[in-house]
């Protein structure tokens, strides 16, 4: 399956195909004519897929950079060591970086590609469900600060996104569930039909049978939204449903306790509880989201006092003059923006 993100000179293709990793060189040769490539990956993914990818790229001079897995690697102070390794390999402005891994590797390697020598070419090969349905597309790249998620970042478009759903076979169930947090988000904001399908699967095996199509549907929604509002001032804000609270939960626990999809799930529940209480969301919307999250083993509350999240929320990028663009649902499949100060989250006492 092939999708094209139409962004003028920054347009790129997304290919979704089982086994495409082995064919990476064919697709890369179409968009990149240089000699050197640096693969940035993590210490879970590289031992599994690094050899396969490096072998496919045997016509290039390949440098391998492997970081420790997990969100704590997506931090500002890891950057100098990555830049040094690229300099040691004499990677120049005409060379390229490939991100091989989940969203952490994609966001981090993308930020490095955006900033090293003021920018080098970049390809995304996402290997987690979350990265395949969401983070590898759209060009947002970033690192976290202790004060908040993704607070230092850039827009860096890949030349290409190669999605091999076969890599999900080695992904831990925890991170399949985590990715489902973002998949459910897509149903909530843009597709009641997708949401209904997600409600209907009786097992991960059944879901896995349709995984290529589910990835396609999510990426196609993201493509459409990103084409309309690349810089996140309008339509694209919808992709942030659940994230204002979700990011604050991740930050509160220093990025160690709740993974991204889990925290976003809790955030979707709480913001919908508030908007339902205010008569914005159709009655029963919160209950349906809770049931969908529970269906995939995701948490729906975290026991934090909402007042404890106000500080982290104050750093959210959707803050304009202390008014936040909260993404709410009118109903499943239809999102809207509610501008309000951060104190609105106090309308639920506990998250
Ligand atoms: N840029 C965006 O638009 C965007 C969108 C959504 C999320 N994100 C970011 O993505 C990050 C979360 O991404 P994630 O959930 O992929 O986390 P992750 O990159 O930490 O991957 C999750 C875990 O799975 C492992 N893994 C990945 N692929 C594997 C495979 N095929 N087999 C075995 N293990 C594998 C990783 O080593 C890691 O331990 C967060 O930092 C979040 O903020 C960014
Ligand atoms: O691509 C987007 O736009 C999104 O909001 C997708 C989110 O799933 C993702 O977590 C993103 O990184 C959040 O963006 P941020 O601007 O809130 O950092
Ligand atoms: Zn997200």
Protein model, in words:
- The structure is a single chain.
- This protein is an alpha/beta fold and 351 residues long.
- It has 2 domains: 2-170, Rossmann fold; 173-347, Up-down Bundle (Dehydroquinate synthase-like, alpha domain).
- Helices cover 41% and strands 20% of the residues.
- It is built from 13 helices and 12 strands.
- The chain has a 7-stranded mixed sheet, sandwiched between helices. A 3-stranded antiparallel sheet has the order 10-11-12.
- A hairpin with a 2-residue loop joins β7 (140-145) and β8.
- α5 packs parallel to α6 and α6 crosses α9.
- It is globular and about 60 Å long.
- The structure holds nicotinamide-adenine-dinucleotide, the ligand O=C(O)C(=O)C[C@@H](O)[C@H](O)[C@H](O)COP(=O)(O)O and zinc ion.
- Nicotinamide-adenine-dinucleotide (NAD) binds at residues 42, 44-45, 48, 69-71, 74, 101-105, 107, 127-128, 130-131, 134-135, 138, 140, 149-150, 167, 170-171, 175, 178, 260.
Keywords:
351 residues; alpha/beta; Rossmann fold; Dehydroquinate synthase-like, alpha domain; seven-stranded mixed β-sheet; 13 helices; binds nicotinamide-adenine-dinucleotide; binds ligand LNCXM5UN; binds zinc ion
Can you lay out the helices and strands and say which pair or pack?
Layout: E1 2-5, E2 12-16, H1 24-31, E3 36-42, H2 45-56, E4 61-67, H3 79-88, E5 96-101, H4 103-115, E6 121-126, H5 129-135, E7 140-145, E8 148-155, E9 160-163, H6 173-190, H7 192-200, H8 204-209, H9 211-228, H10 243-252, H11 260-277, H12 285-295, H13 310-314, E10 319-320, E11 323-331, E12 334-340
Parallel strand pairs: 2-9, 3-4, 3-5, 5-6, 6-9
Antiparallel strand pairs: 1-2, 7-8, 10-11, 11-12
Helix pairs in contact: 5-6, 5-9, 6-7, 6-9, 6-11, 10-11, 11-12
This protein binds nicotinamide-adenine-dinucleotide, the ligand O=C(O)C(=O)C[C@@H](O)[C@H](O)[C@H](O)COP(=O)(O)O and zinc ion (ZN).
GO molecular function: 3-dehydroquinate synthase activity; metal ion binding; nucleotide binding
Subcellular location: Cytoplasm
InterPro entries: Dehydroquinate_synthase, DHQ_synth_AroB, DHQ_synth_fam, DHQS/DOIS_N, DHQS_C
């Amino acid at each position: 399956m092939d999708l094209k993100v139409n962004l003028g000179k920054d347009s790129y293709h997304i290919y979704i195909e089982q086994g495409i990793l082995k064919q990476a060189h064919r697709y890369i040769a179409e968009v990149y004519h240089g000699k050197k490539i640096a693969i940035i990956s993590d210490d879970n993914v590289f031992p599994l897929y690094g050899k396969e990818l490096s072998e496919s790229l045997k016509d290039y001079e390949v440098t391998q950079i492997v970081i420790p897995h997990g969100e704590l690697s997506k931090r500002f102070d890891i950057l100098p060591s990555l830049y040094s390794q690229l300099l040691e390999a004499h990677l120049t402005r005409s060379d390229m970086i490939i991100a091989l891994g989940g969203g952490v590797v994609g966001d981090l390697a993308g930020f490095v590609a955006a900033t090293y020598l003021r920018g080098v070419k970049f390809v995304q090969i996402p290997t987690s469900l979350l990265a395949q349905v969401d983070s590898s597309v759209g060009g947002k790249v970033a690192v976290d600060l202790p004060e908040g998620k993704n607070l230092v970042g850039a827009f860096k478009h890949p030349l290409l996104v190669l999605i091999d759903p076969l890599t999900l076979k080695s992904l831990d169930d925890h991170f399949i569930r985590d990715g489902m947090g973002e998949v459910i988000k897509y149903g909530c904001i843009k597709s009641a039909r997708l949401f209904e399908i997600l409600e209907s699967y009786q097992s991960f095996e059944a879901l896995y049978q349709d995984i290529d199509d589910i990835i396609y549907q999510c990426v196609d929604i993201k493509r459409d939204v990103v084409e309309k509002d690349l810089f996140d001032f309008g339509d694209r804000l919808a992709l942030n449903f659940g994230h204002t609270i979700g990011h604050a939960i991740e930050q509160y626990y220093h990025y160690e306790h709740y993974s991204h999809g889990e925290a976003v799930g809790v955030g979707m529940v709480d913001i919908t509880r508030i908007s339902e209480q205010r008569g914005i969301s159709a009655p029963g919307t919160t209950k349906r989201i809770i049931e969908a999250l529970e269906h995939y083993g995701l948490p729906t509350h975290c026991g934090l006092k909402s007042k404890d999240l106000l500080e982290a929320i104050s750093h959210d990028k959707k803050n304009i003059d202390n008014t936040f663009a909260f993404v709410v649902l009118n109903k499943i499949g239809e999102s809207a923006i509610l501008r309000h100060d951060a104190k609105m989250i106090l309308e639920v006492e506990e998250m």
